[in-house]
Design brief:
This protein is an alpha/beta fold and 390 residues long. 43% of the residues lie in helices and 12% in strands. The chain is built from 14 helices and twelve strands. The strands form three sheets. An eight-stranded parallel beta sheet has the order 4-11-10-9-8-7-6-5. Strand 9, helix 12 and strand 10 form a beta-alpha-beta unit. It is globular and about 65 Å long. The N and C termini lie far apart (56 Å).
Length: 390
């Protein structure tokens, strides 16, 4: 059997592209409109350089930290992403991989696997909520997550229902009807290894979201849930504070790009914020999150945990984010490509790459711990950062 290990996330992406049907891979690439933000999220990291030392380097390096009360072995957390039809085990495989590598799992309320299964696979599970439906609906979802063992809540608010991509969007069916299976058959047959993974489980991607229904209702389709989301009146800051009070435990607000919003999040009593632009799936033209991080971290980093989400592809990116004020990063596409390339082992492979990359950077920069990182470790070009809302 060929060696399925890959040496970078870029290789995982190429393998996932070869393994997955075109429409499935296209859904992972995502992005919005011209793709300005999704590209800047990645490219901005390459504008930052390192300032390494050559002697007196540490023999051992420590990268453990904690996020929302959970001890993790490296400063990389699984970001919640929607329906993971890239692999039959979906989010359960990802949760197992994260647990095996000692880190936390963010589970989307639009996930393909129920929170009970995922929390059983990884006791460090944060359940992610969108503001969907009534207040009673949202409380019911949180209580279900609490009963399942979720140890924190992530509330994602950075979504403007932006749509349309210059490179085209994959046609994803609402339900896997016989007609849709016939339509998609050529794609599936062109990827026999992916098709075989599903056939041997006796299942097909059903494209439903089992964590969204309330009171015994059937799981809606992804697009049905999306419609409910789009029709729900967006929350106020008072609503955010109310939701945080209802949960009563570790609480992250994801999607912050502005200093004034970060300060309002602090006032609402959150535990953590994620500097995120929804991976470029939002207002195209929003700056890369790594450009926004330094000013936000300076403004509120002594009051809440600040994480970064967007564009992280290697351990060096993690180190750059930590040097600019992040406590940890969240990864999305990187682990999805690992999942698509090689299932649970592929996700573990991605996390191992992150760990080894962080370790190599700490060694070169002369630090024995991630806590020692600072902007002095970086070469930051003039005009790199963007300051929004303050």
């Amino acid at each position: 059997m060929a060696n399925k290990w890959f040496e970078t996330v870029a290789v995982a992406q190429r393998r996932a592209k070869k393994h997955l049907p075109k429409s499935v891979y296209g859904a992972l690439v995502a992005g919005a409109e011209a793709g300005l933000t999704i590209r800047d999220n990645v490219d901005a990291f390459s504008e930052l350089g390192f300032a390494p030392h050559v002697a007196g380097l540490p023999a051992t390096r420590e990268m453990a930290t904690s996020v929302m009360g959970q001890d993790i072995s490296l400063p990389v957390v699984i970001s919640p992403t929607g329906v993971q039809a890239v692999h039959p085990d979906g989010e359960v495989a990802v949760a197992r991989a994260a647990a095996a590598r000692g880190t936390a799992m963010g589970l989307s309320s639009f996930a393909s696997k129920p929170v009970e299964q995922v929390a059983a696979a990884n006791p460090k599970t944060f359940f992610q909520l969108y503001w969907v439906g009534t207040r009673d609906d949202m409380v019911a979802r949180m209580e279900r997550a609490r009963a399942a063992g979720a140890v924190g809540i992530i509330v994602t608010l950075d979504w403007s229902f932006s749509f349309g991509r210059d490179w085209g969007s994959p046609k994803i069916p609402e339900k896997m009807t016989l007609e849709e299976m016939v339509r998609l058959a050529p794609e599936a047959l062109s990827r026999p290894a992916w098709l075989y993974q599903w056939l041997r489980t006796g299942a097909i991607p059903d494209l439903t979201v089992p964590n969204l229904p309330v009171g015994g209702a059937p799981a809606p389709t992804f697009f049905g849930a999306y419609g409910q989301w789009a029709q729900t009146v967006p929350p106020s800051w008072e609503d955010v504070a109310w939701l945080r009070e209802q949960w009563g435990g570790p609480f992250m607000l994801k999607g912050v790009t502005r200093i004034d919003d970060a300060k309002r999040a602090v006032d609402a009593g959150v535990t953590a914020i994620s500097v995120s632009n929804h991976g470029g799936n939002n207002l195209d033209g929003t700056p890369a999150t790594i450009r926004l991080l330094p000013d936000i971290a300076r403004a509120v980093g002594d009051q809440v945990e600040v994480l970064l989400d967007g564009g992280v592809r290697r351990g060096g990116d993690v180190v750059k984010a930590l040097a600019l004020g992040a406590r940890a990063v969240m990864i999305g596409r990187a682990y999805l490509w690992g999942l698509g390339a090689n299932g649970q082992a592929g996700v573990e492979n991605v996390l191992d790459l992150m760990r080894s990359g962080i370790d190599a950077c700490l060694l070169g920069l002369g630090h024995s711990s991630i806590s020692e990182l600072s902007p002095d470790d970086l070469v930051i070009p003039a005009g790199f950062t963007r300051r929004l809302g303050g």
